[in-house]
Specification:
Layout (H helix, E strand, L loop, with lengths): L8 H8 L8 E2 L22 H17 L8 E2 L7 H4 L3 E5 L16 H15 L3 E5 L18 H8 L4 E2 L6 H8 L6 E3 L7 H5 L2 H8 L4 E4 L22 E3 L1 H15 L5 E5 L4 H14 L2 E4 L4 H7 L14 H14 L2 E3 L3 E5 L8 E5 L8 E5 L1 H11 L4 E5 L12 H15 L3 E5 L1 H10 L7 E3 L3 H8 L4 H4 L11
Parallel strand pairs: 3-4, 3-7, 4-6, 5-6, 7-8, 9-10, 9-15, 10-11, 15-16, 16-17
Antiparallel strand pairs: 1-2, 12-13, 12-14
The structure holds adenosine-5'-diphosphate (ADP) and 1,3-bisphosphoglyceric acid.
InterPro entries: Phosphoglycerate_kinase, Phosphoglycerate_kinase_CS, Phosphoglycerate_kinase_N, Phosphoglycerate_kinase_sf
Family: Belongs to the phosphoglycerate kinase family.
EC number: 2.7.2.3
C-alpha cells in the first residue's frame, strides 16, 4: 500500500501493541484538523486492536494541540470485553455479509466477509459462542437465491473452523442449534430479511432474536443507517450491546476524513439505489465543492430536465426533488456535473447491442447503462482539481463488460490521484467490488464497507445502529 498521511503499516502495528484496547468509540467527529490515517487492511487474522489505534492517535494529537472534538458520546467496544465477560457466553453478532453473488451463487467480492472476521475471531479466542446474523439483498419473504448458505465455505475458510448454518433465524430448531453450540464455535443464522419484521424493526421479532444470546455486538457498518430489528431492536433486550471492531474503525476513519475534509472536496454518487441516495445529494451540496453523478441516478435528473430517457432507470416520484437539487446546486455555486454522453443498450443483458449517444438523445426502447467517454474525460478533469473524494455507486452496470468502462475509468483515476496524495474513500458493496475488480483497492485511502451508511455519516446524520449501543467510558478529555 502506498501511503500518504499514515505511518508505514509495520510502524502502526508496533505502536498499536501498546495502544489501549478499550478506547471508546466515537459516534461523530474527531478533532478538527486531525487528518485521517490510511485505513488498515481487512486481512483475516489482522489484530483488530489496530483499528482502535487510529482514533487513539488522532485524539492524542488533538489533545496535544489543545483542540476540541465535536461533542460526542463514546460507545462501548467489543474490545472492552475480556475473557471474563465472554467465556461461554452466547454473543449475537450483526455483520453486513451482503456480498455480491453471480448467477451461480459464487461470491464475486468477499470484502465484507473479510471485514467481519477480526471481531468474530476476537470473540472466539475469548471463549464465546458466536451467533452470526446478516441480511443478503432485499428479499421479499423467503427467497432461496438470497440464502446465506453460499457464504459458509468462505467464512469457515477465513475463520479456520467449520461454521454451522441454521435454516431459520428464530424458532425451536435454531434454539436447539444454539444450545448445542460449543465455546469457540460459530452458528450462522439464515438471512434475517426473510422475516418482514426485520425491516419493520418489530419488537417481538427483535425480542425473539435477542433471546438466542446473552450479549450483542453490532459490526454491520454497512447497515448501521437502518433501524432494523437486528441492528437497533435487539439492543433493547441485550446488555451489553457493543460496537465491533469494523464498525469502530469505519466511524473513526470517516468521522476524521469528512468532518474536516481537505478541499476541494468532491463526491461521486452513482449506482441503482436512487431513492435511498438521491436525498443525500441535498446534504452533499452543503459539504462538497464538486458533485459528480453517474449510474442509474442520472436518468431521474435528465427526465426532470425534460429529456427523453427511453427505458432507463427512473424514479418518477423523485423528479421534483431532482429539479430542486439542480437549482440548489446552482444557487450554492456547487459544480454539479451530469454525464454529457451515455452508453445505451437495447436490453438489460451482457450481450445487448450498445451505442454511445449524447445524454439528450436516448431513443425509445433503449436504456442507459454506462457513462460515455466524453463524460469520463470531464469527470477526470474535475477530479484533478480535488484533494478529497468520496465515491459511492458505480457509474454503470459494471458487472457487464460492455458497460464497465465508465466505472473502471473512474476507479483508475481515483487510484492515480490517491498515489498523488488525494484522500480517496470508496463506499458500498458494489463500488468496492468494482474497485477490487480493477485491482486498485489497495491504493485507495479507505475502503468502506458501507455506501449508504458512509453517505449518511457524511450528511452528519446519526446512525441508528450506532446510537442504540451502550455508552462507554470517556477516557480522554479532548
Ligand atoms: N445505469 C444503470 N442502470 C441500472 N443499474 C445500474 C446503472 N448503473 C449502475 N447500476 C447498478 O447499480 C448497482 C450498484 O448500486 P448501489 O447498490 O447503489 O451501489 P453500492 O453497492 O456501491 O452502494 C450495480 O449492481 C450496478 O449494476
Ligand atoms: O449494501 C448495502 O448498502 P450500500 O449498497 O449502500 O453499501 C448494505 O448491505 C445495506 O443494504 P440496504 O441498502 O438494502 O439496506
Amino acid at each position: 500500500m502506498a501511503s500518504t498521511a499514515a505511518p508505514p503499516a509495520a510502524l502502526v502495528a508496533r505502536r498499536a501493541a501498546s495502544a489501549s484496547v478499550a478506547a471508546p468509540l466515537r459516534g461523530a467527529g474527531l478533532a478538527a484538523g486531525c487528518q485521517p490515517a490510511r485505513s488498515l487492511a481487512f486481512a483475516a487474522g489482522a489484530d483488530p486492536r489496530l483499528a482502535v489505534h487510529v482514533a487513539s492517535r488522532c485524539r492524542a494529537a488533538s489533545a496535544a494541540r489543545g483542540t476540541r472534538a465535536v461533542a460526542t458520546m463514546a460507545k462501548k467496544s467489543v474490545g472492552d470485553l475480556t475473557a471474563a465477560d465472554l467465556e461461554g457466553k452466547r454473543v449475537l453478532v450483526r455483520a453486513d455479509l451482503n456480498v455480491p453473488l453471480d448467477d451461480n451463487q459464487n461470491i464475486t467480492d468477499d470484502t465484507r466477509i473479510r471485514a467481519a472476521i477480526p471481531t468474530i475471531k476476537y470473540l472466539l479466542s475469548n471463549g464465546a459462542k458466536v451467533i452470526l446474523t446478516s441480511h443478503l439483498g432485499r428479499p421479499k419473504g423467503v427467497t432461496p437465491k438470497f440464502s446465506l448458505a453460499p457464504l459458509v465455505p468462505r467464512l469457515s475458510e477465513l475463520l479456520g473452523i467449520e461454521v454451522k448454518k441454521a435454516e431459520d433465524v428464530i424458532g425451536p430448531e435454531v434454539e436447539k442449534l444454539v444450545a448445542d453450540l460449543a465455546n469457540g464455535a460459530v452458528l450462522l443464522l439464515e438471512n434475517v430479511r426473510f422475516y418482514k419484521e426485520e425491516e419493520k424493526n418489530d419488537p417481538e421479532f427483535a425480542k425473539k432474536l435477542a433471546s438466542l444470546a446473552d450479549l450483542f455486538v453490532n459490526d454491520a457498518f454497512g447497515t448501521a443507517h437502518r433501524a432494523h430489528a437486528s441492528t437497533e431492536g435487539v439492543t433493547k433486550f441485550l446488555k451489553p450491546s457493543v460496537a465491533g471492531f469494523l464498525l469502530q474503525k469505519e466511524l473513526d476513519y470517516l468521522d476524521g476524513a469528512v468532518s474536516n475534509p481537505k478541499r476541494p472536496f468532491a463526491a461521486i454518487v452513482g449506482g441503482s439505489k436512487v431513492s435511498s441516495k438521491i436525498g443525500v445529494i441535498e446534504s452533499l451540496l452543503e459539504k462538497c465543492d464538486i458533485l459528480l453523478l453517474g449510474g442509474g441516478m442520472i436518468f431521474t435528473f435528465y427526465k426532470a430536465q425534460g429529456l427523453s430517457v427511453g427505458s432507463s432507470l427512473v424514479e418518477e416520484d423523485k423528479l421534483e426533488l431532482a429539479t430542486s437539487l439542480l437549482a440548489k446546486a446552482k444557487a450554492k455555486g456547487v459544480s454539479l456535473l451530469l454525464p454529457s454522453d451515455v452508453i445505451i443498450a437495447d436490453k438489460f443483458a451482457p450481450d445487448a447491442n450498445s451505442q454511445t449517444v449524447p445524454a439528450s438523445a436516448i431513443p425509445d426502447g433503449w436504456m442507459g447503462l454506462d457513462i460515455g467517454p466524453d463524460s469520463v474525460k470531464t469527470f477526470n478533469d474535475a477530479l484533478d482539481t480535488t484533494q478529497t473524494i468520496i465515491w459511492n455507486g458505480p457509474m454503470g452496470v459494471f458487472e457487464f463488460d460492455k458497460f464497465a468502462v465508465g466505472t473502471e475509468s473512474i476507479a483508475k483515476k481515483l487510484a492515480e490521484l490517491s498515489k498523488k496524495g488525494v484522500t480517496t474513500i470508496i463506499g458500498g458493496g458494489d463500488s468496492v467490488a468494482a474497485v477490487e475488480k480493477v485491482g486498485v483497492a489497495d491504493v485507495m485511502s479507505h475502503i468502506s464497507t458501507g455506501g449508504g451508511a458512509s453517505l449518511e455519516l457524511l450528511e452528519g446524520k446519526e446512525l441508528p445502529g450506532v446510537v442504540a449501543l451502550d455508552e462507554g467510558v470517556m477516557t480522554s478529555k479532548l
